[in-house]
Amino acid sequence: MGQPGHGQLHGADPGGGCPEETAATLIDLVRHRWFSCAWRWRGAWYGLHAFQRTDVSGVSSDRALLVSPCTARGYPYTVRYIAPWTAARMRRDARRSGGHVPHERAREDKRMHPMTAFRRPHPGLAGRKLLATAALATLAALGTGGASWAQPVSWKEAMVCGTDPRRPDAQAGLTQRYVVTPNGPIAYYRFGQGSPIVLVTGYRATIANWNAYFLGELATRHEVIVFDNRGIGGSGPAAGDYGIEDLARDTSTLMQTLRLRDVTLLGWSMGGMIAQTLLAHQPEQVRNAVLMNTAPPGPAGAPVPEQAMRVLSGGPGVTFSQVMAVLFPANAREQADRCFARDMFRPADYGSVGIPAQVTRSQDAILQAWSVDRPAYAALAHIGVPTLVAYAKDDAILAPRNGDALLQALPGSTALEVDDAGHAMMYQYPRALARRISEFADTGR
Hints:
By secondary structure, the protein is α/β, with parallel strands linked by helices. The chain has helices at 23-31, 87-96, 212-219, 244-257, 270-281, 306-312, 320-327, 333-343, 357-370, 374-380, 401-409, 425-428, 430-443, and strands at 38-41, 44-56, 59-67, 74-82, 107-108, 177-181, 184-192, 196-200, 223-227, 264-268, 288-292, 387-392, 414-418. Strand 1 and strand 2 (44-56) form a beta hairpin.
Protein backbone atom coordinates (compact mmCIF):
# COMPACT_ATOMS: atom_id res chain seq x y z
CA MET A 1 0.00 0.00 0.00
CA GLY A 2 1.46 3.38 -0.98
CA GLN A 3 1.68 6.32 1.33
CA PRO A 4 -1.64 8.23 1.40
CA GLY A 5 -1.79 11.76 0.07
CA HIS A 6 -2.06 14.81 2.25
CA GLY A 7 -5.54 15.83 3.35
CA GLN A 8 -7.20 12.44 2.89
CA LEU A 9 -8.78 10.11 5.42
CA HIS A 10 -6.56 7.08 5.45
CA GLY A 11 -7.54 3.46 5.74
CA ALA A 12 -5.70 0.82 7.72
CA ASP A 13 -2.99 -1.22 6.04
CA PRO A 14 -4.58 -4.57 5.05
CA GLY A 15 -1.58 -6.34 6.49
CA GLY A 16 -1.75 -4.70 9.90
CA GLY A 17 -4.03 -4.09 12.83
CA CYS A 18 -5.24 -1.13 14.80
CA PRO A 19 -2.98 0.01 17.63
CA GLU A 20 -4.40 0.90 20.99
CA GLU A 21 -5.24 4.59 20.75
CA THR A 22 -4.44 6.17 24.08
CA ALA A 23 -2.94 9.54 24.83
CA ALA A 24 0.36 7.92 25.76
CA THR A 25 0.71 5.77 22.65
CA LEU A 26 -0.32 8.52 20.26
CA ILE A 27 2.03 11.03 21.83
CA ASP A 28 4.75 8.42 21.45
CA LEU A 29 3.82 8.10 17.79
CA VAL A 30 4.14 11.83 17.21
CA ARG A 31 7.43 12.06 19.06
CA HIS A 32 9.04 9.32 16.99
CA ARG A 33 8.03 10.44 13.50
CA TRP A 34 9.02 13.25 11.23
CA PHE A 35 6.53 16.06 10.67
CA SER A 36 5.13 14.70 7.41
CA CYS A 37 1.85 14.04 5.65
CA ALA A 38 1.29 10.49 6.86
CA TRP A 39 2.86 8.11 9.33
CA ARG A 40 2.84 4.30 9.39
CA TRP A 41 2.65 2.88 12.89
CA ARG A 42 1.94 -0.69 13.99
CA GLY A 43 0.57 -1.59 10.59
CA ALA A 44 -1.69 1.43 10.12
CA TRP A 45 -1.35 4.71 8.24
CA TYR A 46 -2.11 7.89 10.17
CA GLY A 47 -2.92 11.03 8.19
CA LEU A 48 -1.47 14.32 9.32
CA HIS A 49 -3.66 17.31 8.52
CA ALA A 50 -1.79 20.58 9.10
CA PHE A 51 -4.11 23.42 10.01
CA GLN A 52 -1.86 26.46 10.19
CA ARG A 53 1.39 28.00 11.29
CA THR A 54 1.47 31.07 13.47
CA ASP A 55 4.54 33.16 14.27
CA VAL A 56 4.84 35.33 17.36
CA SER A 57 8.11 36.88 18.57
CA GLY A 58 10.43 34.30 17.07
CA VAL A 59 8.33 31.31 18.13
CA SER A 60 6.28 29.53 15.51
CA SER A 61 3.68 26.86 16.05
CA ASP A 62 2.02 24.34 13.77
CA ARG A 63 -1.32 23.00 14.87
CA ALA A 64 -2.18 19.70 13.23
CA LEU A 65 -4.67 16.89 13.38
CA LEU A 66 -3.56 13.27 13.52
CA VAL A 67 -6.31 11.23 11.85
CA SER A 68 -6.77 7.61 12.89
CA PRO A 69 -7.41 5.09 10.09
CA CYS A 70 -9.01 2.69 12.54
CA THR A 71 -11.59 4.88 14.22
CA ALA A 72 -11.59 7.92 11.87
CA ARG A 73 -11.07 10.06 14.97
CA GLY A 74 -8.93 13.15 14.82
CA TYR A 75 -6.34 13.84 17.50
CA PRO A 76 -5.17 17.48 17.55
CA TYR A 77 -1.75 18.50 18.78
CA THR A 78 0.69 21.33 18.44
CA VAL A 79 4.30 21.29 17.26
CA ARG A 80 6.26 24.29 18.48
CA TYR A 81 9.43 25.64 16.90
CA ILE A 82 12.03 27.92 18.44
CA ALA A 83 14.18 30.44 16.57
CA PRO A 84 17.86 29.50 16.07
CA TRP A 85 19.28 31.81 18.72
CA THR A 86 17.97 29.36 21.34
CA ALA A 87 19.54 26.30 19.68
CA ALA A 88 22.83 26.31 21.58
CA ARG A 89 21.09 26.47 24.94
CA MET A 90 18.68 23.70 23.95
CA ARG A 91 21.51 21.44 22.81
CA ARG A 92 23.30 22.07 26.09
CA ASP A 93 20.15 21.27 28.05
CA ALA A 94 19.66 18.14 25.99
CA ARG A 95 23.16 16.89 26.77
CA ARG A 96 22.67 17.54 30.46
CA SER A 97 19.42 15.59 30.46
CA GLY A 98 20.98 12.55 28.83
CA GLY A 99 20.18 13.40 25.25
CA HIS A 100 16.46 14.04 25.70
CA VAL A 101 14.71 17.32 25.21
CA PRO A 102 12.56 18.24 28.24
CA HIS A 103 8.83 17.87 27.57
CA GLU A 104 8.22 21.59 27.21
CA ARG A 105 11.10 22.17 24.81
CA ALA A 106 10.63 22.48 21.10
CA ARG A 107 12.64 21.60 18.04
CA GLU A 108 14.38 24.25 16.02
CA ASP A 109 12.62 25.81 13.11
CA LYS A 110 14.33 24.21 10.13
CA ARG A 111 13.28 27.11 7.92
CA MET A 112 15.63 29.38 9.85
CA HIS A 113 18.46 27.04 10.81
CA PRO A 114 19.60 23.50 9.96
CA MET A 115 17.74 20.82 11.91
CA THR A 116 19.63 19.67 14.97
CA ALA A 117 19.18 16.34 16.73
CA PHE A 118 18.00 16.70 20.29
CA ARG A 119 17.22 13.06 20.89
CA ARG A 120 19.00 9.75 20.77
CA PRO A 121 18.34 7.64 17.68
CA HIS A 122 15.12 5.64 17.84
CA PRO A 123 16.03 2.00 18.65
CA GLY A 124 14.00 0.73 15.73
CA LEU A 125 15.78 2.82 13.11
CA ALA A 126 18.61 1.43 11.05
CA GLY A 127 21.99 3.19 11.19
CA ARG A 128 22.39 6.49 12.96
CA LYS A 129 19.47 8.42 11.51
CA LEU A 130 18.70 11.22 13.94
CA LEU A 131 15.25 12.33 14.97
CA ALA A 132 14.18 15.74 16.14
CA THR A 133 11.60 15.82 18.90
CA ALA A 134 8.52 18.01 18.80
CA ALA A 135 7.28 19.59 21.99
CA LEU A 136 3.81 18.23 22.72
CA ALA A 137 1.18 18.72 25.32
CA THR A 138 -1.23 15.87 26.01
CA LEU A 139 -3.96 15.18 23.48
CA ALA A 140 -6.58 16.41 25.91
CA ALA A 141 -4.78 19.58 26.96
CA LEU A 142 -2.38 21.05 24.46
CA GLY A 143 -1.36 24.25 22.73
CA THR A 144 1.42 26.75 23.00
CA GLY A 145 -0.24 28.80 25.71
CA GLY A 146 -1.53 25.95 27.84
CA ALA A 147 -4.89 26.02 26.07
CA SER A 148 -7.22 23.10 26.69
CA TRP A 149 -8.19 21.36 23.46
CA ALA A 150 -10.91 18.77 23.00
CA GLN A 151 -12.56 16.81 20.24
CA PRO A 152 -15.05 18.86 18.19
CA VAL A 153 -18.58 18.46 19.49
CA SER A 154 -21.40 17.32 17.25
CA TRP A 155 -24.92 18.30 18.29
CA LYS A 156 -28.12 16.99 16.70
CA GLU A 157 -30.39 19.79 17.87
CA ALA A 158 -32.63 21.41 15.24
CA MET A 159 -33.66 25.04 14.97
CA VAL A 160 -36.65 25.78 17.16
CA CYS A 161 -38.36 27.73 14.36
CA GLY A 162 -40.69 29.60 16.69
CA THR A 163 -42.53 26.46 17.80
CA ASP A 164 -41.88 26.89 21.54
CA PRO A 165 -43.77 29.75 23.22
CA ARG A 166 -41.42 29.69 26.23
CA ARG A 167 -39.06 32.46 25.25
CA PRO A 168 -37.82 35.47 27.21
CA ASP A 169 -39.06 38.10 24.76
CA ALA A 170 -42.61 36.85 25.40
CA GLN A 171 -42.40 37.62 29.12
CA ALA A 172 -44.80 40.23 30.43
CA GLY A 173 -43.02 43.23 31.84
CA LEU A 174 -39.82 42.84 29.84
CA THR A 175 -38.95 46.40 28.88
CA GLN A 176 -36.01 48.23 27.41
CA ARG A 177 -33.90 50.17 29.90
CA TYR A 178 -31.09 52.69 29.54
CA VAL A 179 -27.72 53.44 31.05
CA VAL A 180 -26.32 56.93 30.55
CA THR A 181 -22.68 57.10 29.50
CA PRO A 182 -20.48 60.09 28.57
CA ASN A 183 -21.18 59.20 24.95
CA GLY A 184 -24.94 58.92 25.26
CA PRO A 185 -27.43 56.28 26.40
CA ILE A 186 -26.94 52.52 26.07
CA ALA A 187 -30.18 50.56 25.64
CA TYR A 188 -30.38 47.10 27.23
CA TYR A 189 -32.65 44.29 28.41
CA ARG A 190 -32.13 42.35 31.62
CA PHE A 191 -33.81 39.08 32.63
CA GLY A 192 -33.15 35.75 34.34
CA GLN A 193 -31.56 34.94 37.69
CA GLY A 194 -28.07 33.96 38.76
CA SER A 195 -24.60 35.28 38.06
CA PRO A 196 -24.72 37.74 35.13
CA ILE A 197 -23.81 37.04 31.52
CA VAL A 198 -23.28 40.19 29.45
CA LEU A 199 -23.57 39.60 25.70
CA VAL A 200 -21.86 41.86 23.16
CA THR A 201 -23.20 41.87 19.61
CA GLY A 202 -21.24 41.84 16.37
CA TYR A 203 -20.81 43.83 13.18
CA ARG A 204 -23.92 45.89 12.33
CA ALA A 205 -25.88 43.64 14.70
CA THR A 206 -28.74 44.59 17.00
CA ILE A 207 -30.26 43.11 20.14
CA ALA A 208 -32.73 41.31 17.86
CA ASN A 209 -29.95 39.28 16.24
CA TRP A 210 -29.59 37.13 19.36
CA ASN A 211 -31.52 33.87 19.24
CA ALA A 212 -34.41 34.03 21.72
CA TYR A 213 -34.13 30.37 22.75
CA PHE A 214 -30.37 30.64 23.23
CA LEU A 215 -30.93 33.58 25.57
CA GLY A 216 -33.80 31.76 27.28
CA GLU A 217 -31.63 28.74 28.04
CA LEU A 218 -28.90 30.99 29.46
CA ALA A 219 -31.53 32.71 31.63
CA THR A 220 -32.48 29.44 33.34
CA ARG A 221 -29.23 29.64 35.32
CA HIS A 222 -27.99 33.21 34.85
CA GLU A 223 -29.06 36.80 34.64
CA VAL A 224 -28.80 37.83 30.99
CA ILE A 225 -27.96 41.37 29.86
CA VAL A 226 -28.13 42.20 26.14
CA PHE A 227 -27.61 45.68 24.70
CA ASP A 228 -27.17 47.60 21.47
CA ASN A 229 -23.77 49.02 20.64
CA ARG A 230 -23.31 52.73 20.18
CA GLY A 231 -25.36 54.30 17.40
CA ILE A 232 -27.76 51.34 17.04
CA GLY A 233 -31.37 51.26 18.22
CA GLY A 234 -31.81 53.13 21.47
CA SER A 235 -28.05 53.38 22.03
CA GLY A 236 -26.58 56.63 20.83
CA PRO A 237 -26.60 58.26 18.41
CA ALA A 238 -22.83 58.25 18.19
CA ALA A 239 -21.17 61.65 18.12
CA GLY A 240 -18.77 61.20 15.23
CA ASP A 241 -16.69 58.19 14.34
CA TYR A 242 -15.53 55.84 17.08
CA GLY A 243 -13.11 52.97 17.64
CA ILE A 244 -13.13 49.62 19.38
CA GLU A 245 -11.83 51.15 22.61
CA ASP A 246 -14.96 53.33 22.71
CA LEU A 247 -17.22 50.29 22.36
CA ALA A 248 -15.26 48.44 25.05
CA ARG A 249 -15.59 51.48 27.30
CA ASP A 250 -19.35 51.53 26.71
CA THR A 251 -19.56 47.88 27.74
CA SER A 252 -17.47 48.54 30.84
CA THR A 253 -19.64 51.52 31.79
CA LEU A 254 -22.79 49.41 31.43
CA MET A 255 -21.36 46.75 33.75
CA GLN A 256 -20.18 49.32 36.30
CA THR A 257 -23.45 51.25 36.30
CA LEU A 258 -25.48 48.07 36.83
CA ARG A 259 -23.01 47.09 39.59
CA LEU A 260 -22.55 43.64 38.15
CA ARG A 261 -20.33 41.14 39.97
CA ASP A 262 -18.91 37.78 38.86
CA VAL A 263 -19.61 38.65 35.24
CA THR A 264 -19.25 36.26 32.33
CA LEU A 265 -18.58 38.40 29.26
CA LEU A 266 -19.71 36.84 25.97
CA GLY A 267 -18.69 38.45 22.70
CA TRP A 268 -19.91 37.18 19.34
CA SER A 269 -18.14 38.07 16.07
CA MET A 270 -17.01 41.71 16.30
CA GLY A 271 -18.44 41.61 19.81
CA GLY A 272 -15.67 39.15 20.62
CA MET A 273 -13.15 41.78 19.53
CA ILE A 274 -14.80 44.30 21.83
CA ALA A 275 -14.64 41.73 24.63
CA GLN A 276 -10.92 41.11 24.01
CA THR A 277 -10.29 44.85 24.23
CA LEU A 278 -12.14 45.12 27.52
CA LEU A 279 -10.29 42.08 28.89
CA ALA A 280 -6.95 43.62 27.97
CA HIS A 281 -7.71 46.89 29.75
CA GLN A 282 -10.02 45.94 32.63
CA PRO A 283 -9.80 42.19 33.29
CA GLU A 284 -10.81 42.72 36.93
CA GLN A 285 -14.38 43.37 35.75
CA VAL A 286 -14.78 39.86 34.34
CA ARG A 287 -14.77 36.47 36.04
CA ASN A 288 -15.05 34.36 32.87
CA ALA A 289 -15.13 35.19 29.17
CA VAL A 290 -16.61 33.51 26.10
CA LEU A 291 -15.29 34.47 22.65
CA MET A 292 -17.67 33.08 20.05
CA ASN A 293 -16.86 32.98 16.32
CA THR A 294 -14.48 35.89 16.53
CA ALA A 295 -10.88 36.67 15.58
CA PRO A 296 -7.71 37.75 17.36
CA PRO A 297 -6.11 41.09 16.54
CA GLY A 298 -3.18 41.38 14.18
CA PRO A 299 -2.11 39.20 11.26
CA ALA A 300 -2.53 35.93 13.20
CA GLY A 301 -6.24 36.10 12.41
CA ALA A 302 -8.02 35.44 9.13
CA PRO A 303 -10.03 38.43 7.85
CA VAL A 304 -13.63 38.35 6.68
CA PRO A 305 -13.72 37.29 3.00
CA GLU A 306 -14.56 40.12 0.63
CA GLN A 307 -17.79 38.52 -0.62
CA ALA A 308 -19.04 37.87 2.91
CA MET A 309 -18.18 41.43 3.88
CA ARG A 310 -20.18 42.80 0.97
CA VAL A 311 -23.22 40.82 2.09
CA LEU A 312 -22.89 41.78 5.76
CA SER A 313 -22.46 45.45 4.86
CA GLY A 314 -26.00 45.51 3.49
CA GLY A 315 -24.98 46.79 0.09
CA PRO A 316 -27.37 47.30 -2.83
CA GLY A 317 -29.05 44.14 -4.05
CA VAL A 318 -28.17 41.96 -1.04
CA THR A 319 -30.98 39.47 -0.34
CA PHE A 320 -32.04 37.70 2.84
CA SER A 321 -31.02 34.35 1.34
CA GLN A 322 -27.53 35.70 0.66
CA VAL A 323 -27.23 36.71 4.31
CA MET A 324 -28.34 33.23 5.39
CA ALA A 325 -25.76 31.72 3.03
CA VAL A 326 -22.87 33.40 4.86
CA LEU A 327 -24.31 32.77 8.34
CA PHE A 328 -25.02 29.04 7.96
CA PRO A 329 -23.52 25.95 6.31
CA ALA A 330 -25.19 24.70 3.15
CA ASN A 331 -27.17 21.91 4.82
CA ALA A 332 -28.78 24.37 7.26
CA ARG A 333 -29.72 27.17 4.87
CA GLU A 334 -33.19 25.97 3.90
CA GLN A 335 -34.15 25.72 7.55
CA ALA A 336 -32.51 29.07 8.27
CA ASP A 337 -34.56 30.74 5.53
CA ARG A 338 -37.71 29.56 7.34
CA CYS A 339 -36.67 29.87 10.97
CA PHE A 340 -34.19 32.70 11.43
CA ALA A 341 -36.71 35.54 11.69
CA ARG A 342 -39.02 33.48 13.92
CA ASP A 343 -36.27 32.74 16.43
CA MET A 344 -34.90 36.28 16.75
CA PHE A 345 -35.11 38.03 20.12
CA ARG A 346 -37.90 40.57 19.65
CA PRO A 347 -39.35 42.13 22.82
CA ALA A 348 -42.67 43.87 22.32
CA ASP A 349 -41.19 47.35 22.79
CA TYR A 350 -38.20 46.78 20.49
CA GLY A 351 -39.06 48.33 17.17
CA SER A 352 -37.55 48.00 13.73
CA VAL A 353 -33.93 49.14 13.88
CA GLY A 354 -31.95 50.47 10.94
CA ILE A 355 -28.17 50.69 10.84
CA PRO A 356 -26.97 54.26 10.18
CA ALA A 357 -24.27 54.77 7.57
CA GLN A 358 -22.03 56.31 10.21
CA VAL A 359 -22.17 53.09 12.25
CA THR A 360 -21.23 51.00 9.21
CA ARG A 361 -18.34 53.35 8.44
CA SER A 362 -17.01 53.26 12.00
CA GLN A 363 -17.35 49.50 12.33
CA ASP A 364 -15.67 48.94 8.95
CA ALA A 365 -12.73 50.98 10.23
CA ILE A 366 -12.70 48.95 13.46
CA LEU A 367 -12.36 45.67 11.55
CA GLN A 368 -9.58 47.04 9.37
CA ALA A 369 -7.63 48.39 12.34
CA TRP A 370 -8.13 45.15 14.28
CA SER A 371 -6.53 43.05 11.56
CA VAL A 372 -3.19 44.87 11.91
CA ASP A 373 -3.15 45.56 15.66
CA ARG A 374 -0.04 43.64 16.78
CA PRO A 375 0.16 45.27 20.25
CA ALA A 376 -3.38 44.11 20.98
CA TYR A 377 -2.38 40.56 20.03
CA ALA A 378 0.62 40.69 22.35
CA ALA A 379 -1.65 41.88 25.16
CA LEU A 380 -3.72 38.69 24.98
CA ALA A 381 -0.89 36.73 26.59
CA HIS A 382 -1.31 38.77 29.78
CA ILE A 383 -5.06 38.22 30.19
CA GLY A 384 -5.59 35.93 33.17
CA VAL A 385 -9.35 35.53 32.78
CA PRO A 386 -10.57 31.95 32.08
CA THR A 387 -11.79 32.05 28.49
CA LEU A 388 -13.90 29.70 26.40
CA VAL A 389 -13.08 30.01 22.69
CA ALA A 390 -16.18 28.76 20.87
CA TYR A 391 -15.92 28.48 17.11
CA ALA A 392 -17.84 26.88 14.26
CA LYS A 393 -16.16 24.43 11.94
CA ASP A 394 -18.02 25.80 8.90
CA ASP A 395 -17.87 29.52 9.64
CA ALA A 396 -17.80 31.35 6.29
CA ILE A 397 -17.27 34.78 7.89
CA LEU A 398 -14.51 34.26 10.44
CA ALA A 399 -12.74 31.04 9.53
CA PRO A 400 -12.11 28.45 12.27
CA ARG A 401 -8.37 29.13 12.11
CA ASN A 402 -9.23 32.27 14.08
CA GLY A 403 -10.31 30.04 16.94
CA ASP A 404 -7.03 28.15 16.71
CA ALA A 405 -5.07 31.43 16.82
CA LEU A 406 -7.01 32.67 19.84
CA LEU A 407 -6.39 29.44 21.72
CA GLN A 408 -2.68 29.78 21.07
CA ALA A 409 -2.66 33.42 22.15
CA LEU A 410 -4.73 33.10 25.34
CA PRO A 411 -3.02 31.19 28.17
CA GLY A 412 -5.28 28.65 29.82
CA SER A 413 -8.12 29.08 27.35
CA THR A 414 -10.60 26.29 26.62
CA ALA A 415 -11.74 25.19 23.16
CA LEU A 416 -15.28 24.51 21.99
CA GLU A 417 -15.22 23.59 18.30
CA VAL A 418 -18.66 22.77 16.89
CA ASP A 419 -19.13 20.48 13.91
CA ASP A 420 -21.57 21.34 11.13
CA ALA A 421 -22.00 24.89 12.40
CA GLY A 422 -21.84 28.34 10.86
CA HIS A 423 -21.21 31.87 12.08
CA ALA A 424 -24.69 32.10 13.64
CA MET A 425 -24.47 28.68 15.29
CA MET A 426 -26.60 29.81 18.25
CA TYR A 427 -29.56 29.50 15.85
CA GLN A 428 -28.61 25.95 14.90
CA TYR A 429 -27.94 24.72 18.44
CA PRO A 430 -29.50 27.29 20.79
CA ARG A 431 -29.98 25.13 23.86
CA ALA A 432 -26.96 22.85 23.56
CA LEU A 433 -24.63 25.82 23.03
CA ALA A 434 -26.22 27.78 25.88
CA ARG A 435 -25.85 24.84 28.27
CA ARG A 436 -22.15 24.53 27.51
CA ILE A 437 -21.66 28.27 27.98
CA SER A 438 -23.63 28.18 31.24
CA GLU A 439 -21.42 25.37 32.48
CA PHE A 440 -18.32 27.39 31.66
CA ALA A 441 -19.79 30.48 33.32
CA ASP A 442 -20.30 28.44 36.50
CA THR A 443 -16.98 26.60 36.56
CA GLY A 444 -14.49 28.44 34.33
CA ARG A 445 -13.83 25.23 32.40
